[in-house]
Amino acid sequence: MAALLPVAEAQQRLFALALPVAEELCPLADASGRWASRDIVALRTQPAADLSSMDGYAIRFADLPGPWEVIGESAAGRSFAGQVAPGQAVRIFTGAALPTGADTVLVQEEAAHDGDRLALAGEGPPRLGSSVRPRGLDFAEGDALIQAGERITPARLALAAIAGHATLPVRRKLRVALLSTGDELVPPGTPLGPDQIPETNRLLLAAMLADLPVELIDLGILPDRQDALEAAFRALDCDLLVTTGGASVGDHDLVRPALAAVGATIDFWKVALRPGKPMMAGRLGDAVVLGLPGNPVSVFATATLFVRPLIAHLAGAADPLPGTRTVPLGESLPATGARADYLRAELIDGRAHAATIQDSSMLRTLARATCLIVRPAGVPEAKTGDSAEILDIA
Ligand SMILES: Nc1nc2c(c(=O)[nH]1)N[C@H]1C(S)=C(S)[C@@H](COP(=O)(O)OP(=O)(O)OC[C@H]3O[C@@H](n4cnc5c(N)ncnc54)[C@H](O)[C@@H]3O)O[C@H]1N2
Ligand code: MOO
């Protein structure tokens, strides 16, 4: 029997199978969720001028406590062209440029304005520069804003826009083909024959990949016939093929022989992991191939630990692995064996409670779970209250 590969080693072997895909200049509106392929710097200074952060009056701090003569108005997009001399003020609105000569904003709640006369009607600005956003407060032209390998989050997208970018250097989208195998599988909603079950795994995977930069290619449900699998593999045109089912050692587990028959190289098969042991990874032509087990919970676990991180790696992520954190256990857990256990669990009052039955076919347990408790291979029993690593999944 092939040796079981530790999870972390399997992840590194997987990343070593292929380099990130080519980069492209992507319009901002399509760049959300991609990874930057180069460092992104500011093309402009923000704000480009001293701006008011409040509605009120631009004054000279030295003139306090007033009164002032109001000589004009500065609004966002229509700044005041003139100079503010001693004793003068300019009506100003949030986001508008501070006129030359003014250095402070008196908020309108603390002002009495009548015609062109302005008087203090409150405590007034506490210091020089109150309610002013100085030029370059956020960033200056040339500042490094996003590093290569960082994800374009919604906030970074907005940052890139205000920094003057219309396009961003990112990795192109990945073409990911999904295929399920099994004679018992029919599309959800189909009336079921006695030996049939609704197919879940392509749906599950598509939903789990929805936030990633992928174009999915649905290769459907294939029967447990090697010729059908070989035909699908020969016609492949993608960056990544993910199959589910038929990965184990039974007479109808044909993914591995079919891959071998079409010339794929299998880098590893079987990971020291429960659920998800009979997972294979390799290459077929230019494509990376991941053969996941058929049990839906095993698909969830292997997609979390391998498919999503691999996609992130190929899409240029510097840090493709999912984050974990530590919480106390709600109950004791038994020692582990040769495989790492990823236990479906719920967090209640900050403590992780593992489901009593951890069968890899049980979707109801998975659907209730909010985290997976990570129990490394070969660790002793853990007691109630001991800290355990978890991976959030909901
Ligand atoms: N003698 C051994 N038997 C098994 C071993 C082993 O080491 N020796 N490993 C077990 C483990 S662990 C797993 S996990 C499974 C994985 O087997 P396969 O990848 O070959 O999966 P299948 O047999 O095709 O299916 C397993 C199970 O999942 C259902 N299934 C499959 N695909 C779907 C789908 N797309 N949607 C819904 N349900 C699906 C299928 O009907 C089976 O019930 O092997 C163990 N056996
Ligand atoms: O490793 Mo299998 O995924 O337990 O059921």
Q: CATH-wise, what's the superfamily of the largest domain?
A: MoaB/Mog-like domain
Determine the strand fraction and express it as a percent band.
Answer: 25-35%
| Mean pLDDT metric | 97
Bound molecule types: ligand LQZAQKY5, molybdate ion
Query: Main sheet: which strands, in order across?
Result: 7-4-6-5-9-8
CATH fold label of the largest domain: Molybdenum Cofactor Biosythetic Enzyme, Chain A
At the first level of CATH, the class of the largest domain is Alpha Beta
Global geometry = elongated
Largest sheet: 6 strands, mixed
Compute the separation of the termini in Å: 36 Å
- Quickly give the CATH architecture of the largest domain: 3-Layer(aba) Sandwich
Low-confidence stretches: none
Q: Give the proportion of residues in helices.
A: 10-25%
Please give the radius of gyration in angstroms.
30 Å
**How many domains is the backbone divided into?**
4
In DSSP terms, counting alpha (H) and pi (I) runs of 4 or more, how many helices?
A: 7
List the helices and strands and how they pair.
Elements: H1 7-15, E1 23-27, E2 40-41, E3 51-52, E4 56-59, E5 68-74, E6 88-92, E7 104-107, E8 111-114, E9 117-120, E10 132-133, E11 144-146, H2 154-162, E12 167-171, E13 174-181, E14 185-186, E15 197-198, H3 201-208, E16 214-222, H4 226-234, E17 240-244, H5 255-261, E18 265-269, E19 273-274, E20 280-284, E21 287-292, H6 296-314, E22 325-328, E23 340-348, E24 351-354, H7 363-368, E25 371-375, E26 387-392
Parallel strand pairs: 5-6, 13-16, 13-17, 14-15, 17-21, 19-23
Antiparallel strand pairs: 1-12, 2-11, 3-10, 4-6, 4-7, 5-9, 8-9, 18-20, 20-21, 22-26, 23-24, 23-25, 25-26
Helix pairs in contact: 1-6, 3-6, 4-5
The chain binds ligand LQZAQKY5 and molybdate ion.
